Amino acid sequence: MAVVFALSAQPNPLPEVTTRIWDKLLHVVEYAGLVVLIARALLREGVAWRRALVVAAFVTSAYGASDEYHQAFVPGRDSNVRDWLADSVGAIVGASAYASASHRRSTRLVEPRTSNAGRQL
Fold first, then answer.
1. Secondary structure tally for the chain: helices H, strands E
2. Contact 22, 57 (CB under 8 A)
3. 35 alpha carbon, distance to own chain's centre
C-alpha cells in the first residue's frame, strides 16, 4: 500500500512503462498483487479461507477508491472512476487466481500416489 501511495503521489511515475502499457492493465496487475498480499496476511492471522478472500478483495477495492481520492489532490494527476473500477477488477482477478492456485496446490498434496500399474501406494 505504501508503494501504491508513493507512486500515486507523483505526477507521472514510471513514464517509460505507462507509455507502452495500457494504464488500466497496470491497475489490474497492481491491485491483483495487493489482494494476494492482503489475503495471505489475513490467512496467516487465522481468518477463514473464504472470508479472507472476500475481506481482502473489499479492502483492496476500498484502498483503490481512497487512492483515486488521493490523486485528486496531486498536481498532474486526476481522480478517475474507471481507474477505481480497474483496481476493483484487479482485486477480483487476483483473489480468484490466488484461490485457484491454492486449490490446485492443495489437491496435489492430498492426491494418493500410484505406482505405474495404477495401484495406490
1. 5, 0
2. no
3. 3
